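Notebook entry, structure prediction.
Reason for the run: the old model in the group folder had no record of what sequence produced it. Starting over properly, with the input documented here first.
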Amino acid sequence: MPFEEAQSNLDTFRDCLSGPLVQRSAVEKGRTPQKRRTKGRKNSIKPVKIHVEADSLGRGDVEELAEFIEYLATEIFESSPKELQSLSYSAIQNDPRLAERFGDPLPSNTLDQILTSIPPSVAESLETYGLLEEQSDLPNFITPVFQEYIDAATAAPPVWSTTRTSACEICERDWIPLSYHHLIPKQIHPKAIKRGWHEEWRLNSVAWLCRACHSFVHRIATNEELAKEYWTVERLMQRDDVVAWAKWVGTVRWKAR
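New structure, fully documented this time:
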């Protein structure tokens, strides 16, 4: 799986995990701390972190929470089954077995495999921070997170006409007319399918560009190069000449009459 797609899935999982963690961290201000007995040690008290409303969290608290979410997301995701890490719309369309294995709701055997893959340190950390009452509560907490991640990772691509932006996706000027640029030029579609460069569902993906940037893109690469190498805005923006162009043309403004 390409690095950028793997990173995208990790980012998606982190976002799914962050919701319930932020919600549990931002409980009512002034909540009375609860004493918690440590198993196996009579009358021993485990301290519970007192959380407050999100608006009253200091910068240090917010940064600490963000780091904690990043740590947990990475620990859980990178320990999960490889097929789960590489899920995509394309993957489940081409593999009925995969679609069944990661269906909604998750089959019990799939869920068991996922839960077993989670390092023990995850439940321990969540309990220590007062985000789980007991480590045994982890399945109830994490199962909806995985289901949300799977739904997001395997979601069908959008109808491209609905992706219109308010600014050019290269120079970011938001006051100029936009046109759509076929990221995979239409003349190359048959070759792209025949040679396995792209799947059919991706062919009509577009970027919304001003006329100047649209023309520039077609000057710096052939249609075949665009289809094979520069079929996303992110890939285009990895080119130094595109970055330099965007910086320059972004300063060009029409004088008011």
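Summary: The beta strands are 36-37, 45-46, 178-182, 206-210.
The old model has been moved to the deprecated folder.
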